[in-house]
Specification:
The strands form two sheets. This protein has an eight-stranded mixed sheet with strand order 2-10-3-9-8-1-7-4, sandwiched between helices. The protein has a two-stranded antiparallel ribbon with strand order 5-6. It is an alpha/beta fold. It has one domain: Alkaline Phosphatase, subunit A (3-Layer(aba) Sandwich). The longest helix has 31 residues. About 3% of the residues have low confidence. Helices cover 31% and strands 12% of the residues.
Length: 431
C-alpha cells in the first residue's frame, strides 16, 4: 500500500482542509556557542560544569529584544536562503533537577520540561511530552498519532533509554523511536505483500501508471515527484544496507555502523519523515539526529576521514573547536535539507508543507562542554501565516523553554494556558 499526497484530480468531493503539523529536530550535546550565537564569536571558551554561563567579551544586551535576522553566524549560515521563514530564539532556559545524569535528563526531558521535584515516583522531571499532547488535537485522524525517528544506528553502548529518546507517553512510559530506515519504511507502507516484494514502487508500478492517466497536469507532476522520492528512498536504503553488509566482513576497531555515512543516514530518515507528513500518515513527528553521551563514533563523511565521537570532542572543546564547529554546521545543513524539502512540496491549497508545519531545531544543552541548561540553541522554521518569521528573538534571562512549547501548542489549536514550567508565551512569533 502506497499512501498518496492530496490531489485535486482525485474525486469531486470538497478539498480537505490542509492539516497543521509539528516536527522537532533534536541535536544532542549542545553547540559551540561562539559559532551559533550572534555576538559571541570572540567569547571565552567556557570551563567548569552544569549551569556555568559563558562570559562573553562582546555579547549582545541580555535584555529582551526582537531584531531582524540579517547576518548569520557560521553555524547558522546554511539557513541563508530561508532567513525569512525561520526565527532564531535565544535566552530560553531549563531547570536541572539534581540527582540524575546531565545528558540523559537534557534529552529525555527536553519536550516535557516538568517542574523539578513535582513528578512522583521518578528522579527525572519527566512528564508526558509535547508531541503527544499536541497529537491529541491534530493527530486523531491520522494512521499514526505520532512518529518517532532516531538516527542512531548503534546498539552497542552502555547508555540507557533516557539518552536516546525524547518522546514519552508519560513518566516511565517510552514512545520508542525507530532507528532502522527499513523498519520505518515497512511501518509506513507495509502490507502482507511486502514479504514477496522488496520495494513498494515495484509492487504498485502498474497501478501508478494507470492512475497517472486520470490526473491533471499539475497532479501528474506532483505524483511523479512523489513516486520518484519514494523510489529514491528505496535505492538509498539498498545502498546503505549493502554497505553495512560489506563493512561487517572487515576487521574494524569500531562496529560496522560507525562507518556508515552520517549525512546520508540522517537525510534518508528525514526523507521518510517528510513523506509521512506529506501524505497525512502523521501530523506529529520527533526526529533525534543522534543520542546523548554515546561514545561509539559516527562517520561524518564530508568532514573527517575516520569515525569520530561527538561527545568526546565536546569535552575537548579548546583543542577540537574547529572540528566541533564543523559538526555543528553539518547538523544544521541536514536541518536545512529538510526545510528546503518541505518548502518545495506544494499542498492542495497552494501553500507548502513548510507553511503548515512548525519545524523546530533545538538541543537540551546550551553548551556541550559545560552542560549548561541555560540559553539553549533554538530555531523555529515554518508556520506560514500563523507565525511572524525572519527574526532573532532574544528572550529575557530565565525564560522557560516551556514558554515556546506552550506557544506552539496554542498555534496548533490547543486551548491551554500553561505547559510544564511555563510562565507565559512568546507573543513576538505570532503573526
Amino acid at each position: 500500500m502506497l499512501a498518496l499526497p492530496a490531489m485535486s484530480s482525485l474525486g469531486a468531493a470538497a478539498p480537505r482542509k490542509t492539516p497543521l503539523r509539528m516536527a522537532h529536530y533534536y541535536v544532542p550535546i549542545g553547540v559551540v556557542r561562539r559559532g551559533f550565537f550572534p555576538g559571541e564569536q570572540n567569547s571565552i571558551i567556557p570551563k567548569g560544569n552544569l549551569g556555568n554561563v559563558m562570559k562573553s567579551l562582546d555579547k549582545q544586551d541580555p535584555n529582551f529584544s526582537v531584531k531582524r535576522l540579517d547576518s548569520l553566524t557560521p553555524t547558522l549560515q546554511p539557513l541563508e536562503l530561508f532567513k525569512d521563514k525561520v526565527n532564531l530564539i535565544t535566552g530560553m532556559d531549563r531547570t536541572f533537577q539534581q540527582g540524575t545524569d546531565v545528558h540523559a535528563q537534557c534529552a529525555s526531558c527536553y519536550l516535557s520540561s516538568a517542574k523539578p521535584y513535582t513528578i512522583e515516583g521518578t528522579a527525572w522531571p519527566l512528564d508526558r511530552t509535547l508531541d503527544h499532547i499536541v497529537a491529541d488535537q491534530i493527530g486523531g485522524e491520522t494512521p499514526f498519532r505520532t512518529l518517532e525517528f532516531s538516527c542512531n544506528s548503534h546498539r552497542d553502548n552502555k547508555e540507557s533509554i533516557y539518552f536516546d529518546n525524547i518522546s514519552w507517553y508519560g513518566t516511565g512510559h517510552l514512545a520508542p523511536s525507530v532507528r532502522d530506515p527499513r523498519k520505518m519504511y515497512r511501518r509506513l507502507f507495509s502490507t502482507q505483500d511486502i514479504d514477496r516484494y522488496r520495494d513498494i514502487t515495484d509492487l504498485v508500478l502498474e497501478d501508478a501508471k494507470s492512475l497517472t492517466k486520470s490526473l491533471g497536469y499539475s497532479d501528474r507532476h506532483k505524483f511523479a515527484e512523489y513516486f520518484d522520492s519514494i523510489r529514491a528512498i528505496e535505492l538509498q536504503m539498498d545502498r546503505l544496507e549493502a554497505m553495512r553488509s560489506e563493512l561487517a566482513k572487515v576487521d574494524l576497531e569500531e562496529p560496522p555502523e560507525a562507518h556508515l555515512p552520517r549525512g546520508e543516514y540522517i537525510r534518508l530518515m528525514g526523507d521518510l519523515m517528510v513523506i509521512a507528513l506529506q501524505t497525512g500518515l502523521t501530523n506529529v513527528a520527533t526526529f533525534m539526529i543522534g543520542p546523548e553521551r554515546w561514545d561509539t563514533p559516527f562517520m561524518y563523511e564530508s568532514l573527517f576521514d575516520n569515525p569520530r565521537s561527538h561527545h568526546q570532542m565536546s569535552h575537548n572543546q579548546t583543542k577540537m573547536i574547529d572540528d566541533l564547529l564543523k559538526v555543528d554546521r553539518f547538523h544544521m545543513e541536514q536541518f536545512v535539507y529538510l526545510v528546503d524539502k518541505m518548502d518545495r512540496i506544494v499542498e492542495g491549497d497552494g501553500s507548502t508543507l513548510l507553511d503548515n508545519t512548525l519545524f523546530t531545531y533545538g538541543s537540551g544543552l546550551g553548551d556541550g562542554s559545560t552542560h549548561q541548561y541555560n540559553d539553549l540553541p533554538i530555531v523555529v522554521a515554518g508556520g506560514g501565516r500563523r507565525v511572524k518569521a525572519g527574526q532573532h528573538v532574544n528572550m529575557p534571562e530565565g525564560t522557560p523553554l516551556a514558554n515556546l512549547w506552550l506557544t506552539q501548542a496554542q498555534l496548533l489549536g490547543l486551548e491551554i494556558d500553561e505547559f510544564a514550567d511555563s510562565n507565559g508565551t512568546i507573543s513576538d512569533i505570532r503573526a
